[in-house]
Amino acid sequence: TSNRMTRQQILTLISMASVNFSSMICYSILGPFFPDEAVKKGASQTVIGLIFGCYAVCNLIGSLILGKYIVQIGAKFMLVTGLFVSSGCTILFGLLNRVPAGPAFISLCFVVRSVDAVGFAAAMTSSFAMTAKIFPNNVATVLGSLEIFTGLGLILGPPVGGWFYQSFGYEVPFMLLGCFLLIMVPFNIYVLPKIDADPSKDSFIRLLTKVKIVLICYVIFTLSAGLGFLDATLSLYAINTFGLSTGYVGLIMLGLSLPYCLASPLIGYFTDKYPATRSWFMVTGGAATALGFCLLGPVPFLHIPSQLWLLIIMLGVIGFSLGMTAIPTFPEIITCAYEQGYEEGLSTLGMVSGLFGAVWSLGMFYGPVVGGLITQHLSFEWAAAVQGGLAFFAVSISLFSMYCIHSKSRSQTKCAFCSVVLIIVFVYIT
């Protein structure tokens, strides 16, 4: 029946799950031990933030370009090539400990991470677009289900990477996981269908003329900025404040990934069944994210001492709220694009996927770089408070825009203009 998945859909779901899992486990292994290793090689906290941040910049550029030309390149070819490039870069990154400390090590970190980012952008952009194309009526449900495997990759990456690093040294985690990612290449060549489509004349610029899409993009930005900040700073903070080993730091990061992994499929199913709830999920999740970051340190003006148990609980709150906020955003942008008159096809889905990846990458650049600067010159507590402020502002803007939807059309234009101006001003001041 129409409610049952075909064999091709099942195989595609398995393929996408393998892509999400293998890509995210390779991405997340850096957190527990790389910042400490980079410090030994002469990198400052700011430089470490820039190494994490350059990945995001190249991912941003790659997502926009590849999303625009996904039809011409081919979605399947783009995904498989992206996996191959990422696997090679993961293995190469494991050899950087043999490079002399100082500028040589730092420069090669930037080069390998940048190329890896383009490969990751290719894999994720095509993965999102193909998922939305093959499951057009259940986008949030399928994405939420796939986020289980994204969450598993994020869950297993830090502890597995930390344990292998402690037991076998710097090289082994990258070699093993890079080879695991490489195995996914022939598997996806065999399983994935070839999708033919005609290129569209629409552009990203027209997509961003709808103010609701701009506001959703800002919400995505705040989420990825928070995650990028934690990637670059949490491990050093936990080691220096609580005296933990890299293995235990990896276990702490489970507090972030596990709630996200559990919440995503439920939220995806619910928002597909009741699309009107997407905005409220984004608002509620944003508020919980703001609270989580403010109490993560906690923020100094609250005069609450840093406690390991409080850190773990707040990571859980952030992980759960991330699922509440992130899962509804992608299908909501697709809905807005169709309302703008975009064609229902792979070309539009590729642009939406590219836009999502680009905005996510922008946050992943902002989070480590600005978070690293604030951590270096002030403290981790103040840097976490800034991330909480970004999330709180997203909630305020979302509520403001939701109020405008129910007002007269003349007021909606003014509210839309004010919302965009406030976002720009707030990000600039921060």
From TrEMBL:
- The UniProt transmembrane annotation reads 12-34, 46-65, 77-96, 102-123, 135-156, 168-192, 213-239, 245-268, 280-302, 308-327, 348-370, 382-405
The UniProt keywords, alphabetically, are: Membrane, Transmembrane, Transmembrane helix, Transport
Q: Which domain of life is it from?
A: Eukaryota
Q: How does it sit in the membrane?
A: Multi-pass membrane protein
Q: One MF term in GO for this entry?
A: transmembrane transporter activity
Q: List, for all copies, the residue spans of the domain called Major facilitator superfamily (MFS) profile.
A: 12-412
User: Could you tell me which Gene3D superfamilies the record lists for this protein?
Assistant: MFS general substrate transporter like domains
Q: What is its main location?
A: membrane
Answer yes or no on keyword Signal: no
List where in the cell it is found.
Answer: Membrane
Q: Does the keyword Transport apply?
A: yes
A single GO cellular-component term on record: membrane
Q: What's a Pfam family in this record? A: MFS_1
Q: Name it.
A: Solute carrier family 18 member B1
Organism (species): Dicentrarchus labrax (European seabass)
Gene encoding the protein: slc18b1
